Amino acid sequence: MRLLRDPVTLILTLPALLWALSFHEFCHGFAAKMVGDPTAERYGRLSLNPLAHFDIVGTIMLLFVGFGWAKPVPINSRYFKHPRRDLIIVSLAGVAGNILTAVITILFLRFLGTYWYQFTGKAGLTFIIQMVNINMGLAAFNLIPIPPLDGSRVLEAFLPYKYMQYYYWLERYGIIILLVLVSTGIINVIFDPIINLLWLLLPY
Prior knowledge:
Layout: H1 7-34, H2 39-42, H3 56-65, H4 83-142, H5 150-158, H6 164-184, H7 187-199
């Protein structure tokens, strides 16, 4: 979904895109606060304001190739009482927020879709569809276990200590690896099964 190819769709999609990114990061910060880490709140990241989470590279990726991210919420695991468990909770919170948004949007469409279409027409329907697609795509993309994506943090929580040196190497070059995989299309080998699995969670 390369949004720049269709300016009209881009305009209709922008609110959904801003919500998906902002709510994703807000959920990370909120989950961190719930398990004892106040770092995100101190840095002003416990917010739904898109400007608080804006990342230029992630936004360009979203517009040009359909994959992207917001600025990662700062997390300090030293505040965690149960480091592995809390890291998983915080890492998956953003994904959970996007899936929750998609579920609520589909339920809205199921029960109020006819009235929504009568009131907003094709533009409103496009917005609703993009709200689901973007949130599900963002959730699936972030589950890929390559830094700086959330899936890598889940991987980190499960890795035995003796393998951490390999994870730190991956973290150092994660962005480069991710860009190469996206630009070559290889990323779809990982992304497609994840997005297909997540779609099964939605109430059709």
